[in-house]
Prior knowledge:
The protein is α+β, with helices and mostly antiparallel strands. The protein contains ten helices and nine strands. The longest helix is centred in the N-terminal third of the chain and has 18 residues.
Amino acid sequence: MKPMDSLTRLELILEKQYKNRRHLVSAANDVYMAALRTGIDLNKLLDFVESGESFDLKKFTKVKEGNVFDFVCEEIKDTSRYFIDITAGGNGGMASIGRGEFFIAFLTNFLVCISKSGRGDLDYPDGSEEWKWNGGKINVDDMQGRDVAKNLMKILEDRDEKKLLKTKTFVPFRKEDRKKYEDSVIDKLNARFWEAITGEEKESLTDNKLKKLCLRRACKKLFDKTDAIIVADDDGAFVRFTNAESMVEYYDNRVDSLKMEIRANQSNPVAFYLTV
């Protein structure tokens, strides 16, 4: 078969996901180059995809942890590693295609679809799943960071506690603040920060307690819109959570190392960076 014939075959497969021609061509180019770089004939790769041999979806969906590449057939495993980073186009809804989403969708011949519903990143035949690669974020709340900061300042003003501030505003977990504030003051400001997000009053919160409250809220919020979540590393290692409780339990023991994004003057919501 001529090279252009195999490329046309690839594009016919990708049309299941891509309606925008520019995005389709970009994804096709990336798959073609992955095959070229790893020395596999493109038609042979597509044979595996169309026959259902490329990825063991049934086994993959049953495990709670493992390595995503272990479910790819041996002949195309090296090629599939390039698919993780294919993020051409959008999902047809309001979001872009994130890392790892194309990998699963393409290798299952789009039996798993990149979601347009807003419920997770991928739609399986029997549910939805969110994918986060190491460093992927989950929001504690959708409120913009600058609005949280405004709420905090109003709470401090209403309580006549602005005098506690030794900086222009307060952002939890900043190491440099440890030199400026006593622990008891930080604990009180942490509690006011939590109130600024949730409206829930607390007298004081240590850094650890605040982070755990934020973690529980973020996990619950996530599972309001998806059935499961996978967090994966660049080497393919992953963990899967099917409920908020199991996710909280996993990260509760690692909460000290969990990094958060908190912006006082930007739109970014308060969020966690997930790792596995």
